[in-house]
Amino acid sequence: MEQQFRVVGNSVPRSCSKAKVTGEIKFAADIKLDNSLVLKTKRSDQPHALIRSINVEKALAVEGVRSVFTARDIPGKNLLGIINKDQPLLAEDRVRSLADAVALVVADTEEAAERGAAAVEVEYQELEAVFDPVEALKEGAVQVHEKGNLLSCRKVVKGDVEAAFTSAYSVIEKEYTTSSIEHNYIEPDAGAGYVDENGCLVIYASTQNPHYDHKEVVGLLGVADDEVRIIQATTGGGFGSKLDLNVQGFIGLALYHLKCPVRYVYSREEAYLATAKRHPFVIRVKTATDKDGRFIALQMRAVCNTGAYGSYGMAVASRSAVHATGPYAIENVDVDVKCVYTNQTFCGAMRGFGAPQMALAHESQMDLHAQALGLDPLAIRRINGLRAGQTSATGQLLTASVGFQDCLDAVAPYYEDAKENWLSAPTDPFKRRGIGIGGMWYGIGNTGVQNPSTARVEMSPEGKVTVFTGCADIGQGSTTILAQITAEVLGLGHDDITMVVGDTGCTTNAGATSASRQTYISGNAVKDGAEKLANVLLTEAVDRLRAPKNSLHFVDGHVAVSIAPEIRVSVAKLAKRIHDKGGTLSWQGFFDPETVPLDPETGEGVPYATYAYACHMAQVEVDVLTGEVDVKRIVAAHDVGHALHPGNVVGQICGGVAMGVGFALMEEFEPGKTESMKDYHVPTVSDVPEVVPIIIESPEPSGPFGAKGVGEPALIPTAPAIINGISSALNKRIYDLPANLERVIEASIQAGHFRVQE
User: Fold this and answer.
1) Which tens digit of pLDDT belongs to each residue from 472-520?
2) What is the side-by-side strand order in the sheet with 228-232?
3) What DSSP character marks residue 88?
4) Using CA atoms, how far apart are residues 182 and 350, in angstroms rounded to an integer?
5) Would the CA dihedral through 159, 163, 167, 170 be positive or negative?
6) Which of 76, 143, 416, 744 has the fewest CB atoms within 10 Å around its CB?
């Protein structure tokens, strides 16, 4: 896309970047209020049990312990949940996982709080537990919740798959599994709070959605909205986990009762135990093609384990069902995704909401059919890849900004070069080289539901602009993007815009920083507010410059006549004139993408207003003796609509690739075994490959200056590309993630690359 804007499209300096690296800005764990007390929780040592009694006397006798609170001390409603309320802050009569908190200890020091928590005595009546979601669906299974173990089911049905299978040339049916994943952000879950002079409970938190936190804390405490204020502290990563309440409810409860400053910082062990995980999936998929390689049918049955509580489980089931086809046109589809309760640690949002799990299945099936038909993996994707004018499995007509074929075209030269020059290069006799392709599409925003954003754009009488937005910046750079959008509309520099972000005391709701929605949705809300302000300024300039409104434009802090730019008036003068007349210089912006709810039986509808697309190519080298997989290079082409900040886009792509390497090769959270980073493998700098980011711009008409999103898409194609690369290298496919050393060695043995001595 040719450059046609002044501010957007440029990699301007990130907001607060210098202050972050110098330590001037404090993260949540660094906030230490004067004379603050320390919080710790007593958590269950049973995966499923009735609570017979909780005795806090010994805990209160510990030196330094001030108070101990249980469920009976919660003045409001003791239920939390992003979509459905099924999780207590403090367990009252039953625990459903080892993560469940049963008591909150308040003490003078960290050590005293820990000793106090250990001294809380809980008498349990053990209950049988269920950990396997497939078993949990069987008749007679242990019931995790009274309403049953099925949290939700999402179906997508189109055409007649059975008829298509009957007439198909190639039919392949396989089962895939993915692991539970820990988010593993660098900064732990943390927060602090105090009571201000007006009696308001002020809570600083590391969060992705301050307005959701506010609503939950208000409900827990049974107080008025203006009695709680949530301020997003500078946040060191979230990847979805910090959409759920972590420390906020505990801090609010302590403030409500004690009226003195408190703080709570999760240890890494507590974060591993008690925070949301990525949903593990079991996916059974059957696909069919005609003789030319065109996919004619897809049938999928998938079960995802949401653990003890719902969190974002319903959203994960819905998104995974919609994305089951991948970025491909398939006329006959039958998808059924079930989200199931078990007694595991609860699972919630994690970068991709089920789409990464689906991508393993649809991209593996794509390669299996290519192999069966003698087609090139890139060629079969060209045949089936979505184009503008086609319809999705939900019946949505894709009219614009469908850049998947462009992504394939961008990767093609690297792919052909790697096949010709890299595959055949000499290497160690026990190493095998392979190339893998992974495709992706990703709906921007929440699935088939309203997910609006609001913002306020305000100009002072002196012409200074402030943007108030609830949009939480968790390192992805949204604050900078929103400032760029405002500046573009008003003809200012990005650094002329003051941003007030993520404070429920003075910002309106922008919705969650999730689903790659903030650039598109909050960007549009900010743009709407800025355009309303711009209209007022232009109207005033008409009177001042004696020129028609359509002949005026903003430039360098002025409004000028387009054909005679020397005829101009400063924005500051216009603002003062409007203010002096009693006019409005503060405007509310709003945007909610146009969607249509999905039919519960067929999945028909318009789940998203726009989609991002991508294709990754992985070059891998596999050591058949040790099972080590060395990912040499990832070429990553992403259709982002319009890159408002190209540097941010590149950063997201590189970060997504790094996370995708972990998902593919090493990351696996095992409940009861994985206690901290000592038990959990994440990519190090030596595991991260060379990344070749390619930005594809297929402008989205409804996006702010054509933009869509890239946060989650950056992750999704990496693992499928790597797995396809391993299959290419070994001539043996791995169906279960992660493809760790043991699985790779087993595949090598099965492929006959070496023999195990008897």
Assistant:
1) 999 999 999 999 999 999 999 999 999 999 999 999 999 999 999 999 9
2) 65-69, 101-107, 37-43, 262-265, 190-195, 201-205, 228-232
3) -
4) 9
5) positive
6) 416
